[in-house]
Amino acid sequence: MSHLIGIFGGTFDPPHRGHLALAAAARSQLGLSRLLWVLTPDPPHKQILTITPLSQRLSMLRLALAGHPDYELSMVETDRPGPHFALDTVRILARQNPGAGLVYLMGGDSLRDLPAWHRPLDLIAVLDALGVMRRPGDALDLQALEQVLPGLIAKVRWVEAPPVDISASEIRARAAAGRSFRRLVPPAVYSFIFDNGLYGMVKARP
Fold first, then answer.
1. Among 29, 70, 141, 167, which residue has the least CB neighbours within 10 Å?
2. Over the chain, what is the mean pLDDT?
3. Quick one: which of 3, 7, 11, 68 has its CA closest to 41?
4. What's the rounded Cα separation, in Å, for the pair 32 and 185?
């Protein structure tokens, strides 16, 4: 194995400074040579929510990643029809990056829910590691998870990052209410949200 590649998936609606902070911590602590940001077009678990059109989320993510040469926007999910299962995505990325080790980044809440994912044992088997970022209240019981998903513990790598009290849903709510969120997103992303009136942002820039 020549190098490790991180996989960071999400809806990124919008991408914010919390995403960037967690990505930086994961890259540094896990020794990742590259970090692929995988934009999920229509996540099954968010079907009841209104999601910003894919083209605008792509534009915001490109703006957020500008100036970060070790970060790369991957079109592995946007360029193929759904459903988009993590296992299929990882297998495609493995074929695209022969010889590289793959590390899938997730929050502690996602790790807790991993048994409900599509073919989780196969996903664990194809990955070199799971980079797990703890979140308040994720209530993880690794031993219990190991009973359901044998081999999981050997693949878990913890990522320690400063507490980041930022969420995309909070940003959307602030925009809709005309409250300030400038410091929560990169400047270019803020300008894009304002210029395109996203999230009901209709008042002057706070």
1. 141
2. 89
3. 11
4. 24
CA neighbor of 15 nearest in space, from 92, 88, 76, 68: 68
Edge to edge, the sheet with strand 4-10 lists 71-74, 34-39, 4-10, 101-107, 129-133, 156-159
Q: Are 63 and 186 in contact (CB under 8 A)?
A: yes
Comparing CA positions, the residue from 87, 61, 63 lying closest to residue 74 is: 61
Domains delineated in the chain: 4-166 (3.40.50.620)
pLDDT in tens, 167-180: 899 999 999 999 99
H or E element in which residue 37 lies: strand 34-39
Tokens of 70: 């070790």
Tokens encoding 54: 């894919």
Residue with tokens 């999601």: 51
Q: Which two tokens stand for residue 7?
A: 């996989």
- Token pair in block for residue 163: 């507490």
Q: What is the pLDDT of residues 109-168, one digit of tens each?
A: 889 999 999 999 999 999 999 999 877 666 788 999 999 999 999 999 999 877 777 889
Query: Looking at residues 191-204, what average pLDDT do you find?
Result: 84
Residues 6+ apart with CB under 8 A from 189: 14, 15, 16, 60, 63, 64
Q: The whole model's pTM is what?
A: 0.89
Q: In the numeric block, which tokens belong to residue 119?
A: 């073919």
